[in-house]
Specification:
Elements lengths: L6 H4 L2 E3 L4 H9 L5 E2 L14 H19 L4 E11 L2 E3 L5 H11 L3 E11 L5 E12 L4 H10 L19 E5 L2 H5 L3 H13 L29 H4 L25
Parallel strand pairs: 1-2, 1-3
Antiparallel strand pairs: 3-4, 3-5, 5-6, 6-7
Length: about 250
């Protein structure tokens, strides 16, 4: 059990993701949890805003797990990679992986993770974290050797910052764990908010649609507070309409 949160939210915890990287992060933080791989339909999502798109994917995972585990605390996340105006999906073959890595070589890109949390009493929060990642120039031999390891497959953007691709990274701006797949600081802010309002949620419920885009120029909204807004990164956030089916692309990090 994690020492920084009370037992109420941790007692019956579900991770709505099959990602081994997210499992490892939660395990290292001391959480005990059930893994519920929530496969969701992405082909009908059409959303030009990248942060909103990541949030929508996370929301769908959370809702799928919530229907199966209605009394649990549900954590869901989905990570996408954006280079220029393009969302990079998971490579389909070696040629595709090589092409993605060449597009990232010598330039910056964004990794965006949408996070959705549902409390046992049904209150919902959804936000997104952004991290800017700078790749150094890669040689053709380096690209070929890395693709040959097999590590790029199953990962949007065709790389793992915590793996063999670590030497490719010049620097990052923002949360490292966000690039791995689960922004820890943001997750704790969301869980802490739900925990603080647990006793009086009937008066301070976080209704669907009351969230906000967590940008400096965005107006405040009900159900948010300073703790949930103080973290670095350009975030989008809103609450989850139960059972919502929204319009996006399918490319994601997992």
């Amino acid at each position: 059990m994690n020492p920084f949160l009370g037992p109420e939210l941790q007692r019956d915890l579900v991770l709505a993701s099959a990602s081994p990287r997210r499992r490892e992060i939660l395990e290292r933080l001391g959480f005990g949890f059930e893994v519920f791989p929530a496969g969701v339909e992405e082909n009908d999502i059409s959303c030009a805003d990248h942060a909103r798109f990541a949030i929508l994917l996370a929301e769908r995972k959370a809702e799928a797990a919530r229907r199966a585990r209605p009394h649990a605390t549900v954590i869901a996340a989905d990570t996408i990679v954006v280079c220029g105006d393009s969302r990079l999906g998971k490579p389909v073959d070696e040629s595709d992986a090589s092409s993605m890595l060449r597009s990232l070589s010598g330039r910056a890109h964004e990794v965006i993770t949408g996070v959705a949390v549902i409390a046992p009493d049904g209150r919902r929060l959804a936000e997104a974290e952004r991290t800017r990642v700078y790749f150094r120039l890669l040689s053709g031999d380096e690209v070929a050797r890395y693709v040959g390891t097999g590590e790029p497959f199953g990962k949007a953007g065709a790389y793992a910052i915590q793996g063999y691709a670590a030497p490719f990274i010049q620097k990052i701006e923002g949360c490292y764990f966000n690039v791995v797949g689960l922004p820890v600081s943001l997750l704790f802010a969301m869980l802490s908010m739900l925990e603080r309002t647990m006793d009086d949620h009937s008066n301070h419920c976080l209704p669907a649609g009351s969230g906000r885009d967590h940008r400096p120029d965005a107006p405040p909204a009900r159900g948010t507070d300073r703790a949930a807004r103080r973290h670095r990164g350009d975030r989008g956030g809103h609450q989850i309409p139960p059972g919502a089916r929204r319009p996006g692309d399918r490319h994601r990090r997992g």
